[in-house]
């Protein structure tokens, strides 16, 4: 029955588009009842009834409780069946793997994490990731996997799902990440830069669907995700926002990418750790020196915490990093004119010590009009944010980009999400 309904609507473009809109209105919460759908779409009562019944037959919607009455018969509410499929998320970091499962409305209901060096290569890393995902799937109610989202800490060709010369990922260049996950789950897979996933989460925290936003992550590396009019801006080849490798004036410091003078080589987490250890070897004291004396290693998080505790060396390192990053962000502000800049990552844990320096340099170096209404804030996200971002990516691709291509099947397929040749 559902299949017949899908095929019937699949043959008629206008009906297809109105059906898709009905499903998405309910899915996003813009409409909860048939009368609300009629008001928002302009469709007549009979047409709305037909579209809703088709969506119910196909498994996208179902009737809920009765809503409040406006004087007549109380309308029955509708709900999107977000539990009908699972989104698998794999968020790879430089030193960890985080995996999770989410419903089709983005709720992460299971997750796992382990420390891992991504330099161990793609085959071993993906094998470990798939094993972690399989354990999660085995521990929870089995639902069909509808989509997979993978985040990696490096540049990605979004069309092919392959990393492109990632500086901290030896052996990953050109590796077909998407294929491994497609083979395992027989579901569409999207691969993106991890910073873009975090930018998507920040977008979801704000009510403006057309927001212009920059998310800048300052961790082991440095990167930025750009949201333009509510959409991730990846550029022609997926390299947009890679500010970690812009040149710092007068710097000749070697970078992990093979070039010299990159922002990452001067201001990233690993650069801060390098400079902290150098200062300690030269006799610097304080909180960081006490950590080393106890046999602990210096990390970006440790430097940030020491800065908030008043350690002079840590404060100096964090502030220098912030000034350099602020100078680079100022260039983006002049060109991109965002409404919000969100700073995240381990180094940003220094809070106002870091943010104050970034703000000062951005406001000094950017055009007055570009900063007139600009907010520069720290991300308040938790460790689940990369997983939520992966879910946001999959949901956007499924229901806003590829929905018309696969909806007649009532669930996505690998071939069904591909654009027509």
Shape: globular
CATH architecture of the largest domain: 2-Layer Sandwich
The strand count comes to: 14
Helix coverage percent: 40-55%
Proportion of residues in β-strands:
15-25%
Structural class: alpha/beta
Q: What gap, in angstroms, lies between the N and C termini? A: 30 Å
| Total DSSP helices | 16
Unreliable residue runs: 5-12
Rg (CA only): 24 Å
Whole-number total of structural domains: 3
Q: Give the neighbour order of strands across the main sheet.
A: 5-4-3-6-9
CATH class of the largest domain: Alpha Beta
Mean pLDDT: 92
SSE arrangement, N to C: HHHHEEEEEHEEEHEHEEEHHHHHEHHEHH
Protein name: ROK family protein
Pfam family, one: ROK
Organism: Leifsonia tongyongensis
Family: Belongs to the ROK (NagC/XylR) family.
In short:
The protein is of the alpha/beta class and 421 residues long. The protein has helices at 2-10, 13-27, 34-41, 45-58, 122-139, 177-185, 194-204, 263-267, 269-281, 287-293, 300-308, 312-336, 352-365, 368-371, 385-401, 403-406; strands spanning 61-66, 76-80, 86-92, 96-102, 108-115, 145-152, 156-157, 162-163, 189-193, 213-218, 222-228, 231-232, 340-344, 375-378.
């Amino acid at each position: 029955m559902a299949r017949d309904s899908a095929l019937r609507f699949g043959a008629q473009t206008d009906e297809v588009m109105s059906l898709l809109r009905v499903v998405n209105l309910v899915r996003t919460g813009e409409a909860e009842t048939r009368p609300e759908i009629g008001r928002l779409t302009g469709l007549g009562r009979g047409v709305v009834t037909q579209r809703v019944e088709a969506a119910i037959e196909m498994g996208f919607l179902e009737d809920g409780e009765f809503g409040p009455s406006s004087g007549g018969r109380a309308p029955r509410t509708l709900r999107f069946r977000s539990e009908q499929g699972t989104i698998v998320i794999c968020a790879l970091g430089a030193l960890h793997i985080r995996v999770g499962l989410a419903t089709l409305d983005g709720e992460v209901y299971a997750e796992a994490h382990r420390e891992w060096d991504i330099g161990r290569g793609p085959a071993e890393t993906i094998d470990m990731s798939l094993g972690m995902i399989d354990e999660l799937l085995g521990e929870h109610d089995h639902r069909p996997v509808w989509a997979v989202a993978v985040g990696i800490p490096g540049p990605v060709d979004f069309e092919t799902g392959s990393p492109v010369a990632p500086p901290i990922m030896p052996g990953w260049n050109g590796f077909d990440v998407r294929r491994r996950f497609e083979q395992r789950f027989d579901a569409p897979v999207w691969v993106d830069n991890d910073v873009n996933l975090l930018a998507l989460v920040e977008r979801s925290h704000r009510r403006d669907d057309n927001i212009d936003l920059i998310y800048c992550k300052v961790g082991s590396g440095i990167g930025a995700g750009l949201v333009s009019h509510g959409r991730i801006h990846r550029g022609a080849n997926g390299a947009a926002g890679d500010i970690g490798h812009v040149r710092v004036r007068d710097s000749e410091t070697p970078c992990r990418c093979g070039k010299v003078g990159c922002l990452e080589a001067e201001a990233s987490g690993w650069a801060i750790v390098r400079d902290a250890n150098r200062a300690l070897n030269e006799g610097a004291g304080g909180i960081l020196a006490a950590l080393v004396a106890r046999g602990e290693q210096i990390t970006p998080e440790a430097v940030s915490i020491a800065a908030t505790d008043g350690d002079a060396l840590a404060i100096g390192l964090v502030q220098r990093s912030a000034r350099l990053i602020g100078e680079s962000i100022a260039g983006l502000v002049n060109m991109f004119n965002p409404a919000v800049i969100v700073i995240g990552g381990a180094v940003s844990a220094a809070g106002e010590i870091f943010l104050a320096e970034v703000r000062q340099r951005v406001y000094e170096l950017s055009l007055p009009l570009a900063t007139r209404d600009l907010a520069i804030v720290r991300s308040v996200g938790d460790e689940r944010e990369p997983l939520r971002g992966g879910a946001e990516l999959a949901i956007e691709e499924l229901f806003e980009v590829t929905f018309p291509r696969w909806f007649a099947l009532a669930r996505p397929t690998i071939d069904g999400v591909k654009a027509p040749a």
